Amino acid sequence: MSEITPSQTVGPFFAYGLAPKGRCQWDPNGSYSWKETVGDNLITPDATGQKIRIEGRVIDGDGKPINDAMIEIWQADSQGRYAHARGEQPRPNAKFTGFGRSATDKDGVYSFDTVKPGAVAGPNGARQAPHIVVCIFSRGMLRQIYTRLYFSDEAANASDQILALVSGDRRSTLIAHKEMRGALPVYRFDIRVQGDNETVFFDI
Amino acid sequence: MSLIYPKESLSAYPAHLSPGYRSTVKRSPSKPLMIVPHTLSELTGPAFGHDAVQDGDADLTKQHKGEPLGERIIVHGHVFDEDKRPIPDTLVEIWQANACGRYVHNVDQHPAPLDPNFTGAGRTITDKKGYYKFITVKPGAYPWGNHHNAWRPNHIHFSVFGQSFLTRLVTQMYFPGDYLFPYDPIFNSVPDEKARARMISSFDLENTIPDWALCFRFDIVLRGREQTPLDTDKH
Prior knowledge:
The structure holds two protein chains of two kinds. By secondary structure, chain A is mostly beta strands. Chain A has one domain (15-26, 35-192): Aromatic compound dioxygenase (Protocatechuate 3,4-Dioxygenase, subunit A), CATH 2.60.130. Chain A has helices at 15-18, 161-165, and strands at 51-59, 69-74, 99-103, 109-115, 120-121, 127-128, 131-138, 145-151, 175-181, 184-188, 191-192, 202-203. Chain A starts with 14 loop residues before the first helix and ends with a strand. In chain A, strand 8 (145-151), helix 2 and strand 9 form a beta-alpha-beta unit. Chain B is mainly beta. Chain B is 4% helix and 24% strand. Chain B is built from two helices and twelve strands.
């Protein structure tokens, strides 16, 4: 029998502790000074590769925006290397951590500024298509839910082993769609927690 | 398919849908979650800059000009994996209501006073033995809108990372002997009584500081990798 500590909801009041400088509307006067540990801008001066923005909305089973969710992402750098804490070779872009956190605003919108990740090692010696792992927390979620973000302009999606496990009619929920905002590629990734067109979540 | 972090451990968790806690009804996935292999993406873990935590972040009673009102307490413990190996260098973040049961957050409309000397946010990094320690005040109980006369037991929110994206844990630490336990759907969303007990801190007289502060111990156990014995292991 497992002895792990059970999960409990992040609740509605996490923002001042976990995401004080996010887009969330908890501090209308903007006078709060608690420094954020992890934010929604992952771009460091030494980050290499294509700068991108990720934007999306978190939506509940009634189609309403979830305005008190927290999204965390974990990704490789543009060369497909993870900045894991231990046992890794030093990387030239050592300041790029690949970890980000964004709280949704009053319209349920989150966003990240980052670089597009490269392909990383996958099961059975194959490469995985470039992707970002995504973790969602909110009031009403007693435990986090995990999904993956893939990029609409990647031919490698067709041979990705994880995507291949997802039924064809639901695979599109994992694809972020590219649009250009000036010179900046913006990938749109909405997360539908429940209902029609529900995002595929992973039991990992 | 071999999963490197055994999933059986997650049986201690609440179900996504737990109708007694009303907000879960529209915020839980309705389709089955997909089981997929653990790849490098899941097995590596969040990294942060070393300046993420600053001196003093773990003492919530010294963040303002004066001392907060309420019962000063020490909350400490170790972060382990499920094989009882300590988790060093991992980020632990907490947030909580003040002694009157009021959060700084502007969504909290409970008509209890804010304390100008208390914010209620803290963080630290575990040492080599997985040990952490906070100084704070005991949070008050507070009402919420889940059902008629609903009150949350006193609790401190905890966010912990561990060594991979899979070991990420957000939970709540409760206090021993709380009379609100039987009525709280969030606490009782954890089906197993022994598992619920693991969210309750224990009173720690040994580390209570005479004439200064009561102490509570809260050990946190994260998912662990399946033991893979190596030739060099003598145990």
